Automatic annotation (TrEMBL):
SUPFAM superfamilies, sorted: EAL domain-like, Sensory domain-like
Highest taxon of source: Bacteria
Name by which UniProt lists this protein: EAL domain-containing protein
Coiled-coil annotated spans: none
Signal peptide: none
Database matches in Pfam families: EAL (PF00563)
Region (Disordered) residue spans: 1-20
Matches recorded under PANTHER family: CYCLIC DI-GMP PHOSPHODIESTERASE PDEF, SIGNALING PROTEIN
Domain EAL: from-to ranges: 20-272
CDD domains from the UniProt entry: EAL
Amino acid sequence: MSHNPPDSLPTPEIDSLSPMLNQQGPVWTANFRGLKLRTALQPIYSISHKRTVGYEALIRAFDTDNSAVLPLHLFELPVSEAENLLLDRLCRYLHIRNYSEIKDQVNWLFLNVSPRVVTSGSQADAFFGKLLKKTGLPPHRIVMKIVEQPTDDAERLRDTVAYYRKLGCLTAIDDFGAGHSNFERIWNLSPDIVKLDRTLLTRATEDRRARQILNGMVSLLHQSGCLVLLEGVETREQAMIAIDAGVDFVQGFYFRRPCLELSELSHSTENLENLLEEYKHRKRETHDPTQLLINHFSETFRRTIDRLRSGQSLADACGELLGHPAVSRCYLVDEQGIQIEDTLVSDSAARNLDPRFLPLENTSSADWFRQQYLRKALAQPENIHVTSPYLCVTGACMCITLSLAFRHASKLRVLCCDTLANFNHRP
């Protein structure tokens, strides 16, 4: 029997929606404007746990000929805010009914919630609390996923997210890193999970710089107190990028496509343990760039320090270092982080100076104490320290800095040497 939406339903409640649902065995379907709605679930995996920890619920629509209707077309059908609210609640009702039939007492169910629905009306989504009570699904197993887009009422959105949290649900920001997403939304809503948009992974697959940005974004989100989920993993190489980026959870066609046959979800198609073993193998075979640089420059650095201790000028002492094709700059810093004398620039670096950054070139008396490479050197004298690649402020180029603290005439000094980040030091 088909049930169409009532003509007027400004605030659809459970009793109004129940007649629109049908049950066949353990599977529930719903009817909306002549279409049959079904639940598809796609597993979400924890990399560290090497297993499924949740499922994202996705709506699938079929016409009377059982032909699939695109979700985009389905959500274009509502002709009013009331009907839009009805469809949103109907989908959530259907998903929770189906998930409650699965013999799983642990994992999360990720539910989409439309920002238009979240911010409509004068009250928080009290319907959802009633729905959980009726179905008996514990709220701590629900992750409410809010799509990143601008909203006219940020305060009401924040209040609604607080409502879900008060219910005991987790909250997630969806499609972060695309469109209108920004960290302000993270600060305002304090989600438990941030789902990165698939475009970030696509770019990271094609561009190594984008991969570094992805890794940095994951680190920032972790520092903000959020777990990170990366969607759109479609190849084994993308799975490796996700593992290397440090994300907590992954989702995508490579692991499993959304599944309409909910009883088959327990049959995993991918062994995360094999992926992790391959990742470890790759890392073991890859030369440690930090140790490589230390080995490469250790003797030259020591000879430079000996020259400085013998009384040679900075320019004379650093001549050998500056003659190396990878070295762009050398400079000396005191124990307070203040630079002594001017920076020495290699001939090759001098030829390639960008005049647009001329105001940054003079670093005499500059204070470098904020730099981690300086503080590490001061804390462990006589040891060479190497940074990860970073943007050098003096030349606005990517560099790697080597630093070594030494004592001369009872004073602590730090020799710093900037090298080109893209130089290959392998023998």
